[in-house]
Amino acid sequence: MRQSLTAIAICSTLAAALPAQAADYVTEPTHTSAIFEISHFGAGVNRARFDKEEGTIKYDPVAKTGHVELRIDAASISTGVPPFDGHLKGEQMFNVAKYPTIKFVSTKFHFDGDKVSTVDGQLTIKDKTHPVTLKATQFACYQSPMVKREVCGGNFEGIIDRTLWGMDYGLNMVAGKDVKLIATVEAIKQ
């Protein structure tokens, strides 16, 4: 019996140390977020996050391929200041009543060695779709002691020109056109 338990423990340890294999993943909501930052009068930075996201990921580190689809509830935007949230949800900005979903769909994963380095994709806001490249500032896969499954995730950043999506309010007066996107994603192997 003791030898069987030892063998199981050794196999479990080896399995946890192996690199991620080709698999499907579903984003884990408590460790996934989408944030943006934009200059405010050149004096400070306004930040906002979206509190509701969901997505799926296909990831194969051996073939060095991947695919991600992330859907964001535009009405879940939060700055911590309710009147500002209302402005961002309104017609001059995200117009969440007409365009309730923001979507990112990857077109290609790039790797540096064994790790994802950048993800190219298409970002859709207000029914307008444009290419975006997000750089991985960190990326790892690990065996989660909480969910008892493999989890892969990372932090991804990129700069977009908000005018491409028809978001011109306050341009060159209140805020610039460049917006920094930060996506933190962790996804659980299915």
What is the CATH fold-level name? Lipocalin
Q: Which overall shape is indicated by the principal axes computed on the Cα atoms?
A: elongated
Cα distance spanning the termini: 31 Å
CATH class: Mainly Beta
Order of strands in the sheet with most strands: 1-4-5-7-8-9-10-11
Report on this model:
- The chain is mostly beta strands and 190 residues long.
- A hairpin with a 2-residue loop joins strand 7 (101-112) and strand 8.
- 13% of the residues lie in helices and 55% in strands.
- The chain has a single domain (19-189), classed as Lipocalin, CATH 2.40.128.110.
- The model is unreliable at 1-19 (pLDDT under 50).
- The protein has helices at 2-17, 82-89; strands spanning 23-27, 33-40, 44-50, 53-60, 65-73, 77-78, 101-112, 115-125, 128-143, 150-161, 175-189.
- The protein has an eight-stranded antiparallel β-barrel.
List keywords for this structure.
13% helix; 2 helices; mainly beta; Lipocalin; 190 residues; eight-stranded antiparallel beta barrel; disordered N terminus
